[in-house]
Design brief:
The complex is a heterodimer. By secondary structure, chain A is of the alpha+beta class. Chain A has one domain (about 30-195): Glutaredoxin. Chain A has six helices and ten strands. Chain A is globular, with a radius of gyration of 22 Å. Chain A starts with a helix and ends with a helix. Mean pLDDT of chain A is about 90; it is low at about 5-25. By secondary structure, chain B is an alpha/beta fold. Chain B has a domain at about 30-125: Sandwich (Immunoglobulin-like), CATH 2.60.40.420. Chain B contains three helices and eight strands. Classes of the chains: A alpha+beta, B alpha/beta. The interface of A and B includes residues 24, 34, 162 and 181 of A. β1 (about 35-40) of chain A pairs antiparallel with β6 (about 95-100) of chain B.
């Protein structure tokens, strides 16, 4: 009887040893970011650009756009995000020319175009800042599902805001959303996938 | 006397079976048919919410395991856009979020009263006690 159990035991072990990979789909590589399926057109907007010209998302077709929402007084999340995006862009070599980072403020009270320019350029001179009237910025946030709210901080205030980075392909489709904290290599991986697709 | 011997054999057989099962549960490699942990917003959810129903689709904490079920898959089958976890998901659209590092992730999520969704990603269980615990947790879910 114990022999029968031994046989059953080893059979169960062998059956369960089928690697998970064999069960997984053998499809094309996925984005490391969260990805939308099917992708929709990234909501378009026109805001004041840090370079003095209007920023219109649809005019950036042909480039992969990495877009984040934040503010220049942000103590941690925004500088980390922009430094990561700058590192990702540097790692792309000549492909970097096909990537545009757009940083949309959630704090129009303090972030005017000159301040945005000075701030984003400290990370990478190619980065674009976008600002505008509070209502216009709120509409952009709504269309991307971004939340932001003012939080009193002593005599001043901070902003609680969504920290994901949006990935928009060269055809202007919203393809993915990278959570905050991911490595520059993850962005480079996804940008290469989007450039190749 | 014969009945007693049969009873003893049956007890021994049960013990062997229990030990074999525990050994299997602790040491057999883990695998799942899919790495996706799927959550769906059913059609009509928005209408139910508008009617005053408190519909909770996502738990405030989701537990995933690297290498096993490490992809959060959110699917909106409703006919209006929904903020679903960290993403705004359009009707008929899915949002697939893979994880590669074991950690606790917090996302702003307006679908929850707390405004936060936590995703706890556990490391792949090592063979032995961790694997046994993982199986027990799945079986009791």
């Amino acid at each position: 009887m114990s022999r029968a159990f031994a046989v059953l035991f080893f059979a169960a072990c062998i059956a369960s040893a089928v690697p998970a990979a064999a069960l997984a789909d053998g499809a094309a590589p996925h984005l490391k970011a969260g990805s939308f399926e099917p992708p929709r057109a990234a909501p378009d907007f026109v805001l004041a650009g840090s370079d003095g010209a209007p920023v219109q998302l649809s005019k950036l077709h042909g480039k992969v756009v990495l877009m984040s929402f934040g503010y220049t007084h942000c103590p941690a999340v925004c500088p980390t995000t922009l430094a990561t995006l700058a590192a990702a862009r540097r790692s792309l070599g000549k492909d970097a020319a096909a990537v545009q980072v757009v940083f949309v403020t959630v704090d129009p009270e303090r972030d005017d175009a000159p301040r945005m320019k000075q701030y984003v350029a400290a990370f990478d001179p190619s980065f674009l800042g976008a600002t505008g009237k509070p209502e216009a910025l709120a509409a952009v946030r709504r269309s991307y599902g971004v939340v932001a709210r003012k939080v009193p901080l002593g005599d001043s205030y901070g902003m609680d805001h969504s920290s994901s980075i949006f990935l928009i392909d060269r055809d202007g489709r919203l393809r993915g959303q990278m959570p905050y904290g991911r490595d520059a290599r993850d962005f480079a991986h996804d940008v290469r996938l989007l450039l190749a697709s | 006397m014969r009945a007693k011997r049969l009873g003893a054999r049956a007890a021994l057989a049960s013990l062997v079976a229990a030990v074999a099962l525990a050994a299997w549960a602790a040491f057999a490699p883990l695998s799942l048919a899919s790495r996706d942990e799927l959550f769906t917003i059913p059609h009509g959810t928005w209408a139910r919410r508008m009617a005053g129903d408190k519909v909770e689709i996502l738990p405030s904490m989701i537990r995933l395991t690297l290498g096993l079920n490490d992809v959060l898959l959110l699917r909106n089958l409703d006919d209006v856009p929904q903020v679903f976890g960290p993403a705004l998901v359009m009707p008929g659209q899915s949002f697939r979020l893979p994880f590669e590092v074991a950690s606790t992730y917090s996302f702003a999520c307006t679908a929850h009263a707390s405004g936060q969704l936590q995703v706890v990603v556990d490391p792949t269980p090592a063979p032995g006690f961790s694997t046994l615990l993982w199986r027990l947790r799945r079986w009791t879910q």
